[in-house]
Amino acid sequence: MSNRGESSFVKLPKFAAKQYDKMMQLEPMREQRVQIAEILILQINEGTLLDIGTGHGRLLIEINKLNPKIELYGLDISQKMIDLAKANLKNINANLQTGNITSTNYGNDYFDLVTCTGSFYLWDAPVEGLNEIHRILKTKKTAILFESHKEYNESNLKEQIKRNLAREGFINRKLVPRFLKKQLKMTYDIKELEEIINSSLFKNHYSIQKITLVNLPIWLKIEIKKE
Ligand SMILES: C[S@@+](CC[C@H](N)C(=O)[O-])C[C@H]1O[C@@H](n2cnc3c(N)ncnc32)[C@H](O)[C@@H]1O
Question: 6-225 architecture in CATH?
Answer without folding.
Answer: 3-Layer(aba) Sandwich (3.40)
